[in-house]
Amino acid sequence: MKTNKIFVKFKLNNNKTRIEVDPLKRVLDLLRDDFDLKSLKEGCGEGECGACTILLNGKPVTSCIFRAGQLESTEVLTLEGIRESELGKIIIEAFHNNNAVQCGFCFPGFLMTTYAYILSGGDTRQDNIKRALAGNICRCTGYDKIIKSVIDAINTYCQK
Questions:
Q1: Contact 69, 6 (CB under 8 A)
Q2: Residue 34 DSSP label
Q3: Inter-residue contact 7 to 76 (CB < 8 Å)
Q4: 14 in helix, strand or coil?
Q5: Across 16-20, 99-103, 129-133, least confident range
Q6: What is the DSSP string of 113-158?
Q7: 8 A C-beta contact, residue 135 and residue 117
Q8: Which of 9, 109, 127, 145 is in the most buried spot, having the most CB atoms within 10 Å?
């Protein structure tokens, strides 16, 4: 079935963009292929693992289950868009200091979710952190180091 292309306007990593695209193209593929944003990973392809997490209007979503046509008038942030921000640097450092990343495949999803959690006023209670991180799967490190990293990032960010 042939789909007609449409123009989609949205903000990507704080930059306005307009692109002609098949409206049914996955956002994951659009961002990786058309914008060369390689922090997003193809994991499960079903929105279950978190490897392709982006922030869509400030909320973490898995880009493998969203379509390009849904991006009209939205704001999208990827790891490339936040890694140089103060909070992004704090989170990356916390994960590094706690050895919370081994293979790195899940890291973008955890970072993006942590970023949104902290900006939404998330606290250091482990139950809340676990709920916020639900939908992100780590097969290497284990979750204790990840949760410790989130707590450390919150504490550091709140001190600034």
A1: yes
A2: I
A3: no
A4: coil
A5: 99-103
A6: HHHHHHHTT--S-HHHHHHHHTT---SSS-HHHHHHHHHHHHHHHH
A7: no
A8: 109
